[in-house]
Amino acid sequence: QVQLLESGGGLVEAGGSLRLSCAASGRTFSRSRLGWFRQAPGKEREFVAAIWWTQAFTTYKDSVKGRFTVSRDNAKNTLYLQMDGLKPEDTAVYYCAVDINSEGWRYWGQGTQVTVSS
User: pLDDT tens across 30-47, in order?
Assistant: First the structure.
């Protein structure tokens, strides 16, 4: 069983920064990719960024490219999302998720709220 626990959300003014963390436990994560998703009120959950556990390859939603950076610390089994230049439209609940062996995003955290004021 995989457990994911997000932290680091909060309230920030537009243009500010936050760093989200996702502590993962329950198994090894080789051959996995880890991702961040978000869901704003009244909207569907959407992909934000992902990184492969054993490689440096990353992917991003177009609207966050150049502002958000996804990274991981293998020794700590922790995923991060550095968010700079935050905009009110980034307001959402942010979730981390794991895709093991390309089986899909089966494991999810509980989410952390990010609110960006204008």
Answer: 778 999 999 999 999 999
